Amino acid sequence: MSITATSPGADAGHIESAAAQAERLVPLLAERAAEADEADRFVAENYALLKEAGLVEAGVPRELGGGGAGIRDLAEMLRLLAHGCSSTALAFSMHTHQVAVPAFRWRHQQATAVEPLLRRVAAERIILLSSGGSDWIGGSGTAEKVEGGYRVSGRKVFSSGSPAGDLLMTGAVLHGEEGDSVIHFAAPMKAPEIRVLDTWRALGMRGTGSHEIAIEDLFIPEAGVSVKRRAGEWHPLFQIIATIAFPLIYAAYLGVAERAGELALAMAARKPPSEDRLALAGRMETSLRAARLAHRWMVEAAERNAPSAETVNDVMTGKAILAEHAIRAAELSMELGGGESFLRSNGLERLFRDIQGARFHPLQSGPQARYAGAMALGLPVSRIF
């Protein structure tokens, strides 16, 4: 089946939304989901579909050649993709937020320095990788100052989509007499100093290609450094990232929980009704409703277009609520489905495994609770991450 993307230059009234295009892909993604999971195989064919459908550039402003999708439409796109393939949605959320962050900076902060990157995404459909698993507030890897720039080395774990990546949006720690700092830069994945290590063997989300990336003595010119910040504390850039990225990433997990619920209801409908099944279905639906409400809260916080410590708190509180209830909904879906939900052939146990990933993105439960508590008590949060 061929997917035809709507031209970003078409009349605005005739541009199909990113979510509508994603919905058309769901059956195709679903056909391959089990195979990718069973073989620990990256969903490369699905990335080809995403490119063909124009979803790679969906978040690029229309003025720069993209689809001009906002946070809400991008989140809906990812939620729907997860109904077809969890791994595709989660891996693609990493590219999507790496586009949405510079798009926000271009539109709301007049950051013209990000324009060439956004134009490349639109024109060439390059894939951006996130090394968020390694490069949270503390940073990782090492940078050594040399003439004209830096020499960088390190290992970047959980780099979802790495087999398809063109640019790794990452950083490295520079040790100095006045304390450590972190430099941020885009590393070309085709550079000989960069290797993707075949390490992704996981409980769930097996098709995300979240391999470890090794960087060995890569030269980054001074002009290639986009941001330099103090290590180990929140920076305004990370307030933007946290506010924008997590409504997108967790849209994928919401979609996984919803799909698990759909399968469980279909299984239950084939059996005689009972009071216990009614109760299980009701509890599952209640958890799903809580997850949806939490996600709506996250999206609304991002749509204020004013990232701050407060929006980080709102998004991360929503994330914690969504994760708890999405995981609980998946657990209840297994119970509602009964013994057949334990069989791999029905797909429900795969979704149950996939949803467990919602536990592990920052802020994890401990730091999130401490951040929320410090905010409530009017205490500093700059080093809580």
TrEMBL record:
Q: List the InterPro entries.
A: Acyl-CoA_Oxase/DH_mid-dom, Acyl-CoA_Oxase/DH_mid-dom_sf, AcylCo_DH-like_C, AcylCo_DH/oxidase_C, AcylCoA_DH/ox_N, AcylCoA_DH/ox_N_sf, AcylCoA_DH/oxidase_NM_dom_sf
By its UniProt entry, which Gene3D superfamilies does this protein fall under? Acyl-CoA dehydrogenase/oxidase, N-terminal domain, Butyryl-CoA Dehydrogenase, subunit A, domain 2, Butyryl-CoA Dehydrogenase, subunit A, domain 3
Residue span(s) of domain Acyl-CoA oxidase/dehydrogenase middle: 132-217
The residue ranges of the Acyl-CoA dehydrogenase/oxidase N-terminal domain are: 29-103
Keyword Nucleotide-binding in the entry? The reply is: no
Q: Which UniProt keywords apply?
A: FAD, Flavoprotein, Oxidoreductase
Q: Where does the source fall among the domains of life?
A: Bacteria
Similarity-based family = Belongs to the acyl-CoA dehydrogenase family.
The protein's name in its UniProt record: Acyl-CoA dehydrogenase
The organism's lineage is: Bacteria, Pseudomonadati, Pseudomonadota, Alphaproteobacteria, Acetobacterales
